[in-house]
Amino acid sequence: MPVYYADHAWLGGDGVVAGVVVEVAGEVITDVRQEAGGVPPGAVHLRGVTIPGMANAHSHAFHRALRGRTQRDRGTFWTWREQMYQVAGRLTPETYHRLATAVYAEMALAGITCVGEFHYLHHDAEGRRYASRNAMGEAVIAAAGDAGIRVTLLDACYLTGGFGIPLVGPQTRFTDLSATAWANRVDDLLDDVTGRSEATGGAFGGHARVGAAVHSVRAVPADEIGIVAGWSRARGVPLHFHLSEQTAENDASQAAHGRTPTELLADHGALGPASSAVHATHLTKTDIALLGTSGTTVCACPTTERDLADGIGPLRTLADAGTPLSLGSDSHAVIDLFEESRAVELDERLATRHRGHWRATDLLHAATETGHASLGWPEAGQIRPGAPADLVTVSLDSVRLAGADPNTLLESLVFAATSADVREVVATGRHIVSDGRHLLTGDVPALLSAAVEEVTRGD
Q1: 279 given a catalytic annotation
Q2: Of all helices (H) and strands (E), which one includes residue 298?
Q3: What phi and psi values does residue 306 have, to the nearest 5 degrees?
Q4: Is 330 an annotated catalytic residue?
Q5: Res. 366: pLDDT tops 90
Q6: Which of 307, 330, 336, 421 is catalytic?
Q7: C or N: which end of the chain has fewer Cβ atoms within 10 Å?
Q8: Which residue in 410, 415, 368 sits closest to 48, CA to CA?
Q9: Please, is 370 exposed, middle or buried when counting C-beta atoms within 10 Å of its C-beta (0-12, 13-18, 19+)?
Q10: Which of 279, 332, 372, 438 is the catalytic position?
């Protein structure tokens, strides 16, 4: 039964606790206590500040191949999307498995122990189903297992290229042609993941869960949204959707339906406590009230929203209306949830010219407990008995954190730490990162270099 001793640990309160012993049996924490006598014999010493494992609530793993390559030219979200489609058109189950494994290993090094993969690469480059029709999703699930982290595969329904616009080019590999056909395919995936998770030695183990996604209101016709939402409710799984990332989507929705995207989703039963709206950047007062009163989570992805020039969303107003906040790295321009966390506060400062909109603990809760809950892992994201044994230790020895005041360690983490300061990671009871090295995959930079080169060769 492993025992860990943390010099300092955040147990969910307003500060950290010194000298914390965490006992683990299998995948679960069995005891958490403060112990003044120092490191117990045989305990693993976690030097620094230990927090719960973080949840990356919105990921497109293959976008990692675009890092840097989309920075060469000017443009908009829509020109960036064309470059993204080029990579999407090249991936196979085998190359995607290699790329996703490397990306998830990078996440593990950053202290992420669970990821929500917003997945719409379903079929081959010609839009035909693979012999195993969930081959691409299975590749992603296997990749997370190989990297040692948990995954919620948010299988996305994607049927049109816009309101009344057919899919073209690489987009054809995204579609199942109807929401009913999408539901039939995802039922197979859900049964497969659930069955294998329950079977001892199953290929997926217990690290994977399945959720649903409406890619966006422009990609799923209004009369099909309810089918996806109903499927997720009937099976008790999370439902995610991109929402109002760009004003062009809002304008098109108004032109097609006389409704905002939020209103359209509300009309068809897509909002609620099990739902997450990704971005939610350009909202009306009515939109904010609908999201808040329904308890829909909003997943902010500030580094991507900056990179794509999306704008600054009304996150503080949403939170005041009752909306929980989670965080994601989305396109993986950066994989660093400390950066995503502080960006929520710092972007709000730019928009309002005032400081102090979020406490450090609020932002850490978004990165841990709320993020896990939004992905269908409500038992995770806390250091407490009964929770999955997810521990992330941040060193205090780097130039960024040296000299940190013991009374403001959480503020130092949120406003100064980076992913490079993560030294130890335990995920579901398994020690996967030690002294900043990934123990399962080996050389993560080399894996990333090879996987990215494989899918961008010729660019």
Answers
A1: yes
A2: strand 297-300
A3: -70, -50
A4: yes
A5: yes
A6: 330
A7: N
A8: 410
A9: buried
A10: 279
